[in-house]
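ARCHIVE ENTRY
Sequence with per-residue tokens
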Amino acid sequence: MSLNPRHLLRMSRWSRRPPSTRRVILVFGVVLLCLALSGLERFVGIPEGLQREPNPKIRIE
């Protein structure tokens, strides 16, 4: 994996001016919410009303 010069510039900008504490908390909160929802879906399941119905194969003759 090679680093693009754009990534190096972005990393240097972040090291000089890191994101605010509120933004870091927001990002971690969203990640935790997504992990909690996916864990709930995996272990408890999805209610039948929210599941996708399989699409019938459409034949065009």
